[in-house]
Automatic annotation (TrEMBL), chain A:
Alphabetic keyword roster: FAD, Flavoprotein, Oxidoreductase
GO molecular function, one term: flavin adenine dinucleotide binding
Taxonomic lineage: Bacteria, Pseudomonadati, Pseudomonadota, Alphaproteobacteria, Caulobacterales
A Pfam family reported for this protein in Swiss-Prot or TrEMBL: Acyl-CoA_dh_N
Source species of the chain: Caulobacter sp. 73W
Protein name: Acyl-CoA dehydrogenase family protein
TrEMBL record, chain B:
Name of this protein: Acyl-CoA dehydrogenase family protein
Pfam families listed in its UniProt record: Acyl-CoA_dh_1, Acyl-CoA_dh_M, Acyl-CoA_dh_N
Acyl-CoA dehydrogenase/oxidase N-terminal domain residues: 6-83
Key word Flavoprotein present: yes
Alphabetical list of CDD domains matching this protein: ACAD (cd00567)
Organism (species): Caulobacter sp. 73W
Amino acid sequence: MNLDFSPEDLAFREEVRAFIAENYPASLRAVQEEGEEMAKEDFLSWHRILAKKGWVAPAWPTEYGGPGWSSVQRYIWSEELARADAVPILPFGINMVGPVIYTFGTPEQKQRFLPPTLTGDIWWSQGYSEPGAGSDLASLKTKAERFTGDDGKEYYLVNGQKTWTTLAQHGDWIFCLVRTDPNAKIQEGISFLLIDMKSPGVTVRPIITLGGEHEVNEVWFENVKVPVENRIYEENKGWTCAKFLLAHERSGIAGVARSKRGIERIRQIAAEELADDGNPLIQDPLFRRKIAELEIDLTALEFTELRTLASEHAGKGPGPESSVLKIKGTEIQQRITELVLEASGNYGAPYFRGFPKEGGNALPIGPDHARRAAPTYFNVRKTSIYGGSNEIQRNIIAKMVLGL
Amino acid sequence: MDFNFSEEQSMLRDTIASYLQDKYDFETRRKIVSSESGWRADYWKAFAEELGILGASFSEELGGLGGGALDNMIVMEEFGKALVIEPYLGTVIIGGGFLKHSGHTDAADHIASIVAGETTIAFAYAEAQGRYTLSDLKTTAKKDGSGWVLNGHKAVVVGAPFASHLIVTARTGGSQREASGVSVFLVDKHAKGVTTRDYPTVDGGRASEVYFDNVSIPADALIGAEGAGLPLVEKVVDEATAAVCAEGVGVMRKLHEGTLDYAKQRKQFGTAISNFQVLQHRMVDMFIELEQSVSMTYMATLKLGESDAERAKAVSSAKVRIGRALKFCGQSAIQIHGGMGMTDELAIGHYFKRGTIIEGLFGSVDHHLTRYERLSFDKAA
Ligand SMILES: Cc1cc2nc3c(=O)[nH]c(=O)nc-3n(C[C@H](O)[C@H](O)[C@H](O)COP(=O)(O)OP(=O)(O)OC[C@H]3O[C@@H](n4cnc5c(N)ncnc54)[C@H](O)[C@@H]3O)c2cc1C
Ligand SMILES: Cc1cc2nc3c(=O)[nH]c(=O)nc-3n(C[C@H](O)[C@H](O)[C@H](O)COP(=O)(O)OP(=O)(O)OC[C@H]3O[C@@H](n4cnc5c(N)ncnc54)[C@H](O)[C@@H]3O)c2cc1C
């Protein structure tokens, strides 16, 4: 056992750091700092730069376009991205459906979907949840019935509703769990379908969340015709793909590198803000205690993640242990937003989305870090709910790890 | 010992509760919050004239109904339950509080105007650099003939867009953070040299940055003693803090009630999610937090008339408890609602937002914990 990075790893760090410094668009930095909702193009421009370099999908096997990095290199990469406050690469294509396609797809499906997923030409949405099926995902009701089209080809006719679909307003394709056999046991009879969102009968409606964002949507399917060749893996065996995907989703969710950056930011903010006694907040014993506790908890998470990475490297896929990372990672992300809001004091209250109104006075109010403090605090409550709520993660550990 | 409400107090509660239930449902409140003005002046008139609640906490000599802090507690709890935006706290509790404690010669007239719903007041006390320290003031009032000239910038003045008047703290002497040299003024918001930048707040309220640029104010704008206003400020802010605790209790009741209702009707895995023990225990913990908060609010409200140190300790301990309880209950309510809790559409998130703002209002948990420690350990000094 040792904690040192090899000289090769250190050289790798220099290389990626230099690449980010030279290639990360300054315009994106401005958008991030303004704290405004990002446009589709904002997400995609960085994605495309990385795709060109061959670095957009660090975990993919080289044969499908991955860079062939070790888990340590991937870890360094995510640290450097966070350090640069880079716009995140959306997980739906790269971390979720991509691995499902290269693991379970046919050669034709791989060829058709993997390259545009890498280049960003397909924006993927995740169509798992339904109004009646959240934590109890297997109770989903969206139906897909097989029929033969006038052209003699086989299709599914899809009817139903998905909800909480993140950024589906930009979506090109959506990967869905649909019920293909209503008479089977609930986890059987589900299939994994890729649906072109421009198909007739697909409607996307916005849901506005607590911080005022349009981040999630309802997606309705009314008699949507989907070619059978868009089904991944066997009919009625979609649950296998679903579970595989969820484990991948969870392992990315710890967000250690970003939380490290978040704590650095809190230190900066606390150095700028003044405490009640007029000294910098960073000297306030109660506040610095909270930062210290957070850092220690993050270190514990980091080393737990490194251990998981090491065992993944040794050939084991992400197992139920990834639930540990999900629970602790999201709790830490939430505590970071709590501290930013706390540090902002009275200036945490002003609300800026869409304000000042047209013709109004455009001067900012309060310090920059305070502007998004409260909306971010509200928004990040989602992390213990989505990706399998933290209660569900604890149930998984109880059952799968502890055998209860 | 008696923790029961008098008949008048029970009536006050019922009157407000039924009025708000009829006229201030969540959809109405949503419309108020997103309207151009951000409040309902006609409701304010109704509070004054139909309900008579604006006078409930003033003595009969001052034209009120003879109640006091407990009446404010009742009003604020009900306002918390309905997420009322209109400025009872700033006008009646803070504005009225300053006037009634100050012995100002025109106090009775001003209060009559508050009770009638004509004067509305916002409290301009915090400054950009001062966090929660009431004496940290760069705003100055300089003697000018018989009156004063006011200069400075006040941060996040809640309710200022709806106010006819401002209560302003300013230095008439001393250095920036000194206890002495603090004075309090009642200023016409439309006086020459007062400018505001109005904006919404995350909990649906409105606030302003208020700038005073050589604002001339008359001699009788001074409330309380010149240069010795800090004890008065602390007393009124303690009263306001106790009132905000009561509002927090109202918010928490709805967070708890809404969560129980939702958990009983939301089905997953073929059963109501209220059947999962982990959620039951969390809702039990919310209940415990709520009950403890009610107790602390009663305690603090009943001790508002004690010595300065006793009062301050009581209020700070209540604010610590309620700040923590609001965070726990708000976060739990969202968590148990799952995705629905994250939506703007459901009321529950709006209670969470108001609760979050109350957590920091007039001092965070850390602020009040520190104040409590100082008062309880440094007494001998
Ligand atoms: C911002 C956001 C983005 C999302 N993005 C997507 C997306 O892109 N695609 C997608 O498909 N979905 C998405 N989701 C949906 C997300 O996966 C679900 O919200 C989540 O699975 C929880 O389901 P639910 O909201 O129906 O809550 P419920 O399942 O109704 O849960 C409510 C509460 O009950 C608890 N609970 C439920 N069952 C149990 C149990 N057995 N034991 C103990 N406690 C339990 C939960 O933990 C939660 O606290 C998103 C959600 C959010 C909030
Ligand atoms: C110091 C001491 C003094 C005592 N004195 C007396 C005495 O004078 N007279 C007397 O009659 N008894 C006495 N007791 C016994 C005491 O009442 C029992 O220990 C108690 O009722 C718990 O029972 P148990 O020890 O069998 O634990 P169990 O009932 O086996 O419980 C074990 C754990 O499971 C939990 N648990 C059990 N059921 C549930 C459930 N439905 N949901 C969730 N969690 C659950 C418990 O909370 C506990 O954490 C004493 C015990 C102690 C430790």
